[in-house]
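Our preliminary data section would be incomplete without showing what the modeling component actually yields. Below, a chain of 273 amino acids is followed by its predicted structure, encoded as tokens that our downstream tools consume directly.
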Amino acid sequence: MAAQARPKTVLITGCSDGGIGSALAAAFQKRGHTVFAAVRNRQKASALASLPNVTIVTLDVTDKHSIAQTVQIVHEQTGDNGLDVLINNAGQGGSIPLVDADLESGRKLFEVNFWAVLAMIQAFVPMLVQSKGTIVNISSMGAIIHHPYIGLYNSSKAAITIASDTLRLELQPLGVNVITAMVGMVRSRFHDNLPPVVLPEDSFYKRVENWILATTRVGEEMVKYQMPIDQFAEELVGDILAGKTGHIYKGGMSSTLRFFKWLMPTWILVGTS
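Predicted structure:
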């Protein structure tokens, strides 16, 4: 009889209640794996706090000292087992025409969505090389669909998608697998946390300000296309544990958008703006 595989140790960032990170943590925990659920505010991870095999970790992914403390916590609690799976899920959204974007706010968005992901990978890669583990970077279909007014967010996701593809080549000789989750429409609280859209008074886009504001919400007509978050988490966790690699398209409309990306001319998007 083959020996039973030991439970994996998983670190997931951005585990606030109602989000993808929280759902992923619950899905791994339900399968018997050990989860470090990282969140900036522990009060926002109440759904995971009572689950066995889940440790809530306070982490600001943009703070190198906070990352170092998390490395120490994982090392102390896992010992020789180390870390098997790192899931970079923490992220920030936002809607604004690029010509109206506040550049300092844009840099902060990239700090969370790109540089913090790289910082986490650099901090934990020694553990992952030791375990021959897996890195999962949560990207978005926005990385390949250039929808107007969410250009900063989409650009940050395109950047992490390219970086993930490069990391997959660089880390493969070291035995580390890299997955890029190309996320479509998921029924989560992501849109609840988006900052308000505030256009300058002299913006060229004032006449469509209400339309831009609508991009921060999910209308009733779109809910039917959203994948339930628990289903999304179960399917993605299954793919991760099965050893899949490269891009994984998951969530409502993800497969359709992937296909139509190559058929959809830019003028269609321009015509809707």
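The longest helix spans residues 103-131. The two ends are 61 Å apart (CA to CA). Preliminary results of this kind motivate Aim 1 of the renewal.
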